[in-house]
Amino acid sequence: MHLDHLRWLGGPNLYVSRPVAIARLELEELTGRETTDFPGFADRLVPLLPDLTAHHCSAGRPGGLLEAMARGTYFGHVTEHVTLELSSMVGREVFFGRTVWAGAPGRYDVILECPRDEPPEDPIVERLLRLAMRTVAELLEGGTPALGPELAAIASAYGQTRLGVSTAALAEAARRRGIPVRRMGRLNLLQLGHGRHRRMVWAAMTDRTSAVGMEAAADKMLTKCLLEEAGLPVPRGCIVTSPEEAVAVLAEIGGPVVVKPLSGHHGEKVSIELSDPAEVSAAFREAATVCEEVLVESYVPGRDHRVLVVGDQVVAAAELSPARVTGDGRSTIAELVALANTDPLRGEGHDRPLTRLTIGDTELAHLAGQGLHPGCVPADGEIVMLRRNANLSTGGTSKDVTDRMHPDVIRLCRRVAATVGLDVCGIDLRLPDIGAPAPPEAGGVGVIEVNSSPGLRMHLAPYEGRSRDVAADIIDQMYPPGATARVPLVAVTGTNGKTTTVRMVAHLLGQDGRQIGMSTTEGVYVGNELIYKADASGPRSAQMVLGNRTVETAVLETARGGIVRRGLGYDRADVAIVTNITDDHLGVDDIDTVEDLVEIKALVAEEIRPGGHVVLNADDPRVAAFAERPTVRRRKPVVRYFAQSGANEVVSRHLRADGVAYFTEDGWLVEAEGGRTRALLPVGDVAGSFRGRADYMIANALAAAAAARALGVPMSLVARGLQTFDPHRCNPGRGCSFRVEETPVIVDYAHNPAAVAAVGGLLRRVWGRDGVATVTLPGDRCDDLVMETAREVARSFDRVVVYEDEDLRGRRPGEMTRLIIDGLTQERPDVRISTAGDLKDAVGIALGLTTPGEPLLLLYEKLQPVADLLQTLGAAPTPTSETPR
Q: Does the keyword Protein biosynthesis apply (predicted)?
C-alpha cells in the first residue's frame, strides 16, 4: 500500500460532525484482492489486536468486522479498522471510520475520526496510519509485527499534544452547555463562544483572571503580606538567599520549618517539617536550584488541603496525601512503585488524574529517614510514604472533603480569594480537621499558598470520594446559566448568487444598527471595514468572523471548496440559505456530477441548530428537496421557501400546511404564512434589479428577506434595506452598471452556464438586442463545463472578445481561449470572435465593436483590475434604475 496524501477537515463535514482526517490510499499490488485471498490473515491479525473483535463495521454490532473479513473485504477497509484500534491503544478516543472508493481501481479514501481538540494537522494520525499499513503488510508477508515500541512512542507524543486534564474538562463542560469550543493551535488555550460573547480560558485561568492577582499569587511572600494585613492566618516566614540566612530564620522562629522556592510550583523542591540546621541548609540548596530567593516559614501541623474558589463560591475541597505505596508482604518498595504505575489513571505530568510515582533523590532521602530503601519488602497492609509533601504532581492522591467543610473554613477561603483578587483560586490550607470550627484567633490553621490557574484534577477525579464537576462551575462563572455564548449565524451556500445574497443579508441585518461580521469571496468584513482581503468563503474565514469580539451577527458565505477541503468553520447555524445548485466546479476535488454537488451543499442545511431556519429555493427541485432530508427533518427547522411566483407547487403545498414563503405577486415582493400575505415592497424598487427585470436579483432579495425575517428584522427595515442595497457600494462586481461614453458596461462574475444565461437574458430584456461580451472563464473547471458556458455566451451575444486571466489555474497558455472559442462556434457558427492578450486589450476591442447604446458584458476573474481599468477609461457608475425601460 502507498499513502498518497492526507488532509484534515476540522469542522462538520460530509461524513460526521466531528473532525476527521482523510487518507488517500493506493493499494497497488493489493488492488482487487480481498482478505479471503490470504487464508489465515484474520487469524493472525486478531491475536495481535484482540479488541478488533468488538468492531461493529457496517453490521452495526460487535463482530461485524470479523464477519466482513470472513466474507472478503479489501485492505483499505482493514487498514481503517487497524488504525482505529491503534488509536484506542494510545488513548485517542475515536470511533468513526469509513473507507470509500476514490475513482480508480485500488484507490480509496480512508476517513478517520480525530479527537475534537487535537491540534490541526497533528502528525499523530499519520504515524498511526503508517503503523497500521506496516502491520497489515507484515502480516500478509507472514511476519509478526512488533507494535510495542512504536505504539509507546506514539502514546508519549500524543500525551504531549493532548489537552491537559483541566483544559479538557473545561472543553467538555462548555460543550455540554452548547457553548462553541475551539482549541487555539497546540496550546492549552480555548476560545469559547462566538463574536461579542467570545471568551478565552487557559486551563483554569480565564480572560478575566486578574494579572495583579496572578502576580501576587506567584510571589509567596507578597501573598503572605496581603493575607496577613487582611487578618488571615499565615505561617511566619522570611525570604533568604543563603544557607546561613535560612539557618538563622530557623533559630528565630523555631522549628519545625518549611523551605521552598519563592516562585516555585507543583511542590517542586519543597522540604517540610525540618528542625535540624543541616537539613535546613541542604533544603535551601535544593530550593535555590529553582529560584535564587527561598522562603523559610514555620511548619503548620495538620492535614494538607486544597480548596477551590470560583467567583465568590467555594466549590470543592480535597484532602491531599503524599505519594505512598501499600505493602503486600512479598514485593519490594521498588516493585510496588512499578505496580502502582501500571494504573491507567497515572501518567506523566498532568495529562492523567494521577501522576506516576518515582524514586528519585527526594524519595530516597525520605525512605532513608525511615530506615528504608527501595529493596525493602513492607509487610502486608503497611503504608510506606515516599515523600513528605502532599502534591499530586509528585504522585500524591486526593480525597474529596467538600461536604465536610465547616462554614468557618468556607468563609475563610472566600476572604482569601477576595483579598488576592482571583476569579478562580486554589488555596492550600493546613489544619487538623476541615470539618471543625477554625476562626483565625483559634490558631492551628494556616493558609500556606494561593494559586492562580489551579489544577482541577484532584477535584474532577479524586482518589477517594465524590468527584466534583468544578469545570462546569468555572464555565458557569464565565457564562451564567441562561446567558448565551453565540451570536446569530447565517450560512449561505449554492452555486450562483452566494456572494450577493450574503452581502444583501448583512445589509438587511445591519439596518437596526447591529455590527455584522461577513465572509465572502472578496474578503472578511466587520461592519463596513474590510479586515482580510482574500477568497474568504471557507472555514478559516468563518472562524475569523466568529472570533471577532465586536461581531453581533455573522453572515458566512460557505462555498463548496471549503466544505470539501476543510469542513465547515462553525458547528451550527441559526439560518441556512441554499440559493440554487447547477453545473459548476465539476471535475474539481473529485466532484464529477451535480449529484455530488447536491450532497456537499446539503451539509449547510443539515448543520442547522434544532428549531433553526432553512431558506430554500422552491424553484430549484434539488434545493427544495433538502427540507425532506432525514438529517434536516431531525433538526425540526422552520422551512422558509422562496420562489419567483406563489403559484409554485412547492410553495402552494407549504402554505397549505401553514408554512412560510416569500415570492412575487402582482408586482410586489410578499411574505406569506399559511393563508395570510403581507407586502414587502414593489419588485421594481429592489436595488440592483434593473427595475425588477433581473430575476436572479429578485430571487436573492427574497432569500435575504427570508433570512432577515427569521432573525426578527421588522418588515419596514427589510424593505428599506432592499431599496438601499446599491450594487456599486454594497455589491461591487455583481450586476454593476457603468457607462463608458455611449456604451453601457455591465460587470458581472457569471462563470457557469446558468449564470451566463441569467445575465444574457437580462441584457436582452433591458436593451432588446444582442450585445458584446468580453469573456474569461476559470481554468479549474472541466473542459465540458467550460465549453457549455461558452455555448451559453453564444446564445446571448453575437460578438465575443475572449481573453485569459493571469491566473490560469493549472491550464497552459492559450488552452482556455481554444476551449471557449470551440464552445462558441459549436453553438453559433456565425458568432464574431476576437481574442485579446489581456483584460485591457479585451475591453478596448469590445468597446470598438459596440454601437452607441449597445450593452457590453464584462466577465472577470479578479475585480480589482477591472475597477482600475474602468477608472482609467473614465467609466461612470450608473444606477440600475436608470437603464432603458
A: no
Whether residue 191 is contained in a domain is answered as no
On whether the CB atoms of residues 844 and 838 are closer than 8 A, the answer is no
Q: Cα 501 to the chain's mean position, in Å?
A: 25
Q: Is residue 763 located within the same domain as residue 719?
A: no
User: Is residue 48 domain-resident?
Assistant: yes
Residues 704 and 767 reside in one and the same domain: no
Give dist(CA 619, CA 644) in Å, integer: 7
Could you tell me which of 472, 597, 581 has the C-alpha nearest to residue 174?
472
Q: Answer whether 576's CB lies under 8 Å from 599's CB.
A: no
- Cα separation values, 446 from 59, 261, 293, 441, 775, Å: 61, 18, 22, 11, 81
390 Cβ contact partners less than 8 Å away, ≥ 6 residues apart: 267, 304, 320, 321, 322, 396
Q: d(Cα 216, Cα 522) in Å, to the nearest integer?
A: 48
DSSP secondary structure letter of residue 372: -
| Domain co-membership, 632 together with 740 | no
Q: CA-based angle 410:323:387, to the nearest 5?
A: 100
Domain contains 422: no
pLDDT tens for each residue of 741-785: 999 999 999 988 999 999 999 999 999 888 899 999 988 888 888
Three cell numbers written together for 863:
475585480
Confidence of residue 589 (pLDDT cuts 50, 70, 90): low
Clarify whether residues 726 and 749 are in a common domain.
no
Domain shared by 656 and 716, yes or no: yes
811, 812, 816, 819 alpha-carbon torsion, rounded to 10°: -110
Global pTM? 0.89
Instruction: Say whether both 659 and 742 belong to one domain.
Output: no
Cell of 128: 498511526
CA distance 662 to 670: 6
Residue at grid coordinates 490470504: 38
Look up residue 175 and give its amino acid: R
Tell me how many domains the chain contains: 4
Are 673 and 753 in a shared domain? no
Q: Which of 699, 730, 761 represents a domain boundary (last residue)?
A: 730
Residue 357 cell numbers, joined: 510515582
In CATH, what number is assigned to the domain containing residue 857? Answer: 3.90.190.20
111 pLDDT band, cuts 50/70/90, is: very high
762 and 710 both lie in a single domain: no
Could you tell me the sign of the dihedral formed by the alpha carbons of 470, 473, 477, 483, in that order?
A: positive
Q: Which of 819, 825, 766, 780 is nearest to 798 (CA)?
A: 825
Percent of the chain clearing pLDDT 90 (strictly above): 82
Closest-CA residue to 581 (of 709, 753, 708, 701):
753
Listed in sequence order, the residues at least 6 apart from 381 whose beta carbon sits closer than 8 Å to its beta carbon are: 326, 327
Q: Which range of residues forms the domain containing residue 129?
A: 2-162
